[in-house]
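Request: Have a read of the protein record below and say how the chain folds.
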Amino acid sequence: MQQARRRLEQRALPLARTAGEGNIQWTVFGPTNWRCTMSVEMLAGEAGEGLRLADQVDTSRLPSRERQFTCLEVARCYHQRRDDAAVLVHLLGLEGLAPKDLSRSPVARAMVRDLQLRVRPAFRRKVDALANRLERA
């Protein structure tokens, strides 16, 4: 994992800074996009490190709604940590951003199913309502 981090920092970050923010030919590359490497951390089981990186990212600056949908990776990091309230908050935010993308995401649907099984009673209605909306979409 250290080697992957080092390569991203040494090779991808300088290129991202040089390129600036943009979406030329749907590449969506730039400094903000580079910071979305949280998914690498999440996939390596380093949810805490992924969340630390996510705290440095303002996805609203990204030039594409699809790339802003990266917050799904943030929800997955919280899911790995079993922080159900944070998962729900991020999923609801993504629903507001791109409801069809959320409803078509197998990862999002799996997280909602997991939430239905283990969420605290205080959040049950919101999770069930989200599940219903995803089913209808």
